[in-house]
Structures are given as structure tokens and as C-alpha cells.
Write a structure and sequence with these properties.
Pfam families: Complex1_LYR_2. This protein is an all-alpha fold and 138 residues long. The protein is built from 6 helices and no strands. Helix content is 64%, strand content 0%.
């Protein structure tokens, strides 16, 4: 994979958006807005321009700052578009794994978010007993 195609970039963009938490408001989150501007198509003639132009200026300024403080040249510190796409793919895989982890923890530890009274009541029901109704003086 020498240069990312527009289809690959679109698929990567959608997979990153899929992993973001759902929003109740109709406006997109700041992270979704940033992703959209990063992946936005600037020139449809070159397939890597959408990704490269949007992020290259940020990467160059960051790497120039880091290179000047560490004594390295700024040219060697910048990343290619292929490396950026690979990092974004790794991020998408990581976010998917984290989402799956949270789902599994919630599924296999159902009492995790319960208060003590509810946990005791459900434990009693599991062995076939019902707790007596508490007397409330009115």
C-alpha cells in the first residue's frame, strides 16, 4: 500500500466515527468535526490530498517545534501519509477493542452498577427467596 485511496480513507473515516459515543444533540461533537475537516476532500484529483493537506501543516508545526527543542532537523521528523493512515487504522482498532471491552465487562458483571440493597435482593432471588417488605411508618 503505497498511497491510500479515497475509498480507504472514507472507510477509515467512517470506522473512526462509528467508534465515537452517540450524541443526543443534533450538532456533531468537536472530535467528529475535527475528523471531518481532517478527512475533507480538498482536491479530488489527487487521492492523498484530502488527508495529507489537512494534517501536514499540523504535523509539520508540531515536529518542527519538537525538532528544534531536541536538535533534530524538521524534515526528518515529519510522517508520510502512509504512516498517518496506519496510525489512524490502529486508533480505530484500539477504539473498537475498548468499546468491546466495556460491553463485555458490563455483560459479565451485572451487579457492578447496583447499590447494596438491590444486589442483596437479587442474590436472594437467585436462590429462590424473596426479601420481606420493609415496614415504613407513616
Amino acid at each position: 500500500m503505497s498511497t491510500p485511496t479515497p475509498t480507504t480513507l472514507r472507510s477509515l473515516y467512517r470506522s473512526l466515527l462509528r467508534e465515537l459515543p452517540p450524541r443526543t444533540s443534533p450538532t456533531p461533537s468537536p472530535l467528529a468535526t475535527h475528523l471531518r475537516s481532517t478527512f475533507a476532500s480538498v482536491s479530488p484529483t489527487t487521492p492523498t490530498s484530502a488527508f495529507t493537506r489537512a494534517t501536514l501543516s499540523d504535523a509539520e508545526s508540531t515536529s518542527a517545534t519538537m525538532a528544534s527543542s531536541s536538535g533534530l532537523s524538521a524534515i526528518g521528523a515529519t510522517k508520510s501519509s502512509l504512516q498517518k493512515v496506519q496510525e489512524a487504522e490502529q486508533l480505530a482498532q484500539y477504539l473498537k477493542a475498548q468499546r468491546m471491552y466495556v460491553t463485555l465487562v458490563e455483560r459479565y458483571n451485572p451487579g457492578m452498577n447496583m447499590n447494596e440493597e438491590e444486589r442483596v435482593r437479587l442474590t436472594a432471588r437467585r436462590v429462590g427467596m424473596d426479601l420481606p417488605v420493609d415496614y415504613v411508618k407513616e
